[in-house]
């Protein structure tokens, strides 16, 4: 039995059907009340013992901007009380390289520190584990561009580059890892091309037929400097997907 946390999310909606296609029995955890899903909350621990009962592999995809370490802590505690399943976790490229110290760092890049803290919870859990760090999903880049376009000018972090990846490719990768044995920290997974943030926005504007000026902005703090210096780009051993931002824009727009 596989348990998917975050099975209702952007990534999870790709992962769950792929897993089911392999003939696997899949249980989905959500905070919502959805027929055929199990209701629980990783922030409080509610419903987790029931969710983990009889589970051999957990795909832990649930995540928010805050507290992913707290969610991981509740999950590994429940997993340790249950059958000690294989924990497959999705994290984010660069989370171990972005120093989050001051208030500006926390407000803008606190997510990365919490992802690293969640990785550590899983690594130190004593459970068998596999972690995949992915770069930003195309779906996220789209959401960020859409939100920025609500402003009169689109602010883009100066000097910052991203290598976004297609969500479906991340899902396929994770399903392969979940069907295999515990493999520890896997090579990063990224898309095929690097784009300055301003270029991501310009391509989005072109694809959606909108007109906006893109304004480069600088931020304070060590986390921004690390990101500007390439901390969110994958390492040299990374696995690369094939779907570019332009390919994604063609299908999505
Ligand atoms: N988006 C990216 O670019 C990106 C890049 C690298 C890594 N990741 C990681 O990939 C994972 C999936 O991201 P996503 O974009 O698919 O996220 P998403 O669309 O925002 O979905 C978040 C999921 O987390 C679940 N969730 C949130 N809080 C929960 C809680 N307290 N208890 C139980 N479930 C909870 C939600 O379920 P309900 O609302 O149904 O409860 C939902 O299914 C996250 O861990 C994220 O950090 C994302």
UniProtKB/TrEMBL annotation:
<dbReference type="InterPro" id="IPR051207">
    <property type="entry name" value="ComplexI_NDUFA9_subunit"/>
</dbReference>
<dbReference type="InterPro" id="IPR036291">
    <property type="entry name" value="NAD(P)-bd_dom_sf"/>
</dbReference>
<dbReference type="Pfam" id="PF13460">
    <property type="entry name" value="NAD_binding_10"/>
</dbReference>
<feature type="domain" description="NAD(P)-binding">
    <location>
        <begin position="6"/>
        <end position="139"/>
    </location>
</feature>
<dbReference type="InterPro" id="IPR016040">
    <property type="entry name" value="NAD(P)-bd_dom"/>
</dbReference>
<protein>
    <submittedName>
        <fullName>SDR family oxidoreductase</fullName>
    </submittedName>
</protein>
């Amino acid at each position: 039995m596989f348990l998917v946390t975050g099975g209702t999310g952007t990534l999870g909606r790709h992962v769950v059907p792929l897993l089911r296609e392999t003939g696997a029995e899949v249980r989905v955890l959500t905070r919502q009340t959805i027929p055929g899903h199990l209701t629980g909350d990783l922030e409080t621990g509610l419903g987790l013992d029931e969710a983990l009962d009889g589970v051999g592999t957990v795909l832990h995809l649930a995540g928010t901007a805050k507290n992913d370490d707290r969610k991981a802590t509740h999950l590994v505690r429940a997993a340790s009380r249950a059958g000690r399943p294989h924990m497959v976790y999705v994290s984010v490229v660069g989370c171990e390289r972005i120093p989050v110290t001051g208030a500006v760092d926390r407000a803008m890049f606190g997510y990365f520190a919490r992802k690293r803290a969640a990785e550590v919870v899983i690594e130190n859990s004593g459970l068998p584990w596999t972690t995949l760090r992915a770069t930003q999903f195309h779906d996220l880049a789209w959401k960020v561009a859409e939100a920025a376009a609500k402003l009169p000018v689109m602010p883009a972090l100066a000097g910052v580059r991203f290598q976004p990846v297609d969500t479906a490719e991340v899902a396929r990768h994770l399903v392969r890892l979940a069907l295999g044995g515990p493999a520890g920290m896997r090579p990063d997974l990224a898309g095929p091309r690097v784009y300055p943030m301003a270029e991501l926005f310009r391509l989005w504007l072109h694809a959606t037929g909108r007109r906006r000026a893109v304004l480069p902005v600088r931020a304070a703090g060590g986390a921004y400097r690390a990101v500007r210096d390439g901390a969110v780009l994958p390492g040299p051993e990374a696995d690369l997907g094939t779907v570019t931002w332009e390919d994604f824009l063609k299908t999505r727009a």
